[in-house]
Amino acid sequence: MINCANILLVLLWWHGLRWDLTADKRYTISQPTREVLAQVDEPLSIQLLLGDEGVNAGFHRLHQAVLDLTDEMTALNANCVTTAAEPPKSLELQPIVVHERSQNGQMVQTPVYPYAIVRYKGRMRVVNLLQNNPGRNGEENLNSSIEALEYRFAEAISGVLQPRTAKIAFLEGHGELNERQAYDWTKQLSRYYQVDRGVLGNTTGVLDDYQAVIIANPREPLKETDKFIIDQYIMHGGRVMWLLDGVRFSGDMLQEDGLTPVIAEDWNTRDLLFRYGVRINPVLLQDLQCQMIPVEVSGSETETQFQPMPWTFAPLLLTNQDSPITKDIAQVSAAMASEIEPVGGEDGLNKNILLATSSASRRIGVPAEVNLMDWTIVPEAFNMAYIPVAVSIEGVFPSFYAHRMPPTEIEGNPAICKQSEPTKQVVVACGQLAENEWQRQEPLPVGFDRYTKTQFGNRDFLVNSILWLTDEQGLMQLRGKQVVLRLLNTRRSYNIRTRIQIISMAAPIAILAIVGTVVIAIRRKKYIR
Fold first, then answer.
1. Cis ω before 367 (30° cut-off from 0)
2. Strand 259-264's sheet: what is its strand order?
3. CA 492, CA 495: separation in Å to the nearest integer?
4. CA distance 180 to 190
5. Residues contacting 518, CB < 8 A, separation 6+
6. Which candidate among 406, 433, 464, 523 keeps its CA 20 to 30 Å from the CA of 477?
7. What are the beta bridge partners of residue 243?
8. Alpha-carbon distances of 348 from 152, 393, 395, 401, rounded to whole Å
9. How high is the mean pLDDT of the chain?
10. pLDDT at residue 297 greater than cutoff 70
């Protein structure tokens, strides 16, 4: 007989109603994604390349999570069509090799393509479904990948919906990172933006068409006209990413002579940033959690022998897992970094630390000298913890020129905007963090250590920072979504394995015996008089 509960379930299924009963709401589509899907008015194709046959349990769980998400998107907008497909030969997609055991007990290697291709009105985006953080195990990386699925799909769909590409700009004219030094970062950003480079000049409003401006590691002080143009750009809602060293040093001298003097430097930005609520202190940071570099230790003129040594002036920075910019990315490698300090008290600005040193770090005052051959490390001296190196700021900023005259070189007589619209900035006290190296005339990924063959999180941090600055729809907040990872405690389960085996075998039999006894007793009482 069909009861009321079954009828209710049929009606819910018929009307396409869903009820997410999970504690972490893993099947609930967030409001920013709903707003993006509402704009899809023609068929949108989602091709899944992640196969399901012969893949281990972890990838099967990722595959099922992708299907669940795309099913929910289709339920919200029937124009979203999901199909399985083979990797197209026109796209150079690198597979992930999964090691698994076959039925006959042999280890086999299965190539898996953890990608999806989103197509809409002739535009295309490739979605990387797998997030790989070298500091985490496979289960944790797969869980992070599942957490990030909604953001990755929403960002891709939003990208193919936009017929025009937004513009961002790298500032030039002060010795900033050139195209070669910022090649990898620029290449990644070009997937989302039209990336321009140029000098400001003396005319205000020259930056108004750009969603964000990047000031990457200047080697010369900013001119007063540049400061005024940048300030007024921010006042009109512009977003800026600052990558500034707090000290001046010579990388060439350090490489050639093995030492370099270090002096304080503010690049004529200290007063401007102080007005915006942060200060880069002219100190040099050391950290016991640092990169390893090869050092020649043989002492012979005929034979060379290199040994990896910890270079404490190249800290591996911790990332803030509560920020959408740095959640689930690997440690960020830095070099000759300085401290950044929030100032201003209750100024109404929201300031979040993005990157910081480890629990075993210290500050060195300048002027000082860095000697590449001085490997003396006194662990007791590294008694400071979590020194900030990068922060994000959002809110309403006061103008540096609210009570100042504009520079005389500025053309015309511009009206000064004294308070900004709600906007955002990211300030990083390490300019070299964004520079990529080259090897055999080929660019290396930014944050890649060619000696240890380790990819750090620099690229993800830089790209996420710009995506956060230009995010108008709130999609970056989806990176904060959490899916609780319920892992089996293998050590405890091994220790109590005998108890588990006994319970697993005896409990069903005991339950059946109890139920059978109760049923027999009821029947006897009812029918035997």
1. yes
2. 247-248, 259-264, 368-371
3. 5
4. 15
5. none
6. 433
7. 216, 428
8. 31, 10, 7, 19
9. 87
10. no
Q: What would the two tokens of residue 55 be?
A: 């893949």
| pLDDT over 90 at 141, yes or no | no
Highest mean pLDDT among 321-330, 387-396, 486-495: 387-396
Q: How many Cβ atoms from other residues are within 10 Å of residue 310's Cβ?
A: 16
Percent of the chain whose pLDDT exceeds 90: 55
DSSP code at position 303: -
Whether 315 contacts 436, CB under 8 Å: no
In the predicted model, what is the mean pLDDT of residues 505-525?
87
pLDDT value at position 366?
92
The pLDDT of residue 256: 84
105 has pLDDT over 90: no
Task: For residue 375, give both structure tokens.
Answer: 């490997």
SS3 295: strand
What does the H/E/C string look like for 184-246? HHHHHHCCCEEEEEECCCCCCCCCCCCCEEEEECCCCCCCHHHHHHHHHHHHCCCEEEEECCC
pLDDT attached to residue 1: 44
Question: Nearest to residue 280, comparing CAs of 120, 144, 389?
Answer: 389
Distance of CA 523 to the CA centre of its chain: 65
Residues linked to residue 213 through DSSP beta bridges, in sequence order: 169, 240
Question: Among candidates 142, 151, 154, 130, which has minimal Cα distance to 46?
Answer: 154
- Using CA atoms, how far apart are residues 529 and 527, in angstroms rounded to an integer? 6
What distances in angstroms separate CA 464 from CA 162, 313, 330, one per listed residue?
Answer: 19, 25, 13
What is 141-181 written as a DSSP string?
HHHHHHHHHHHHHHHHHHHHH-SS-EEEEEE-SSS---TTT
**Residue 293, both tokens:** 């570099």
Q: pLDDT exceeding 70 applies to what percent of the chain?
A: 90
Check: CB of residue 316 under 8 Å from CB of residue 291.
Answer: yes
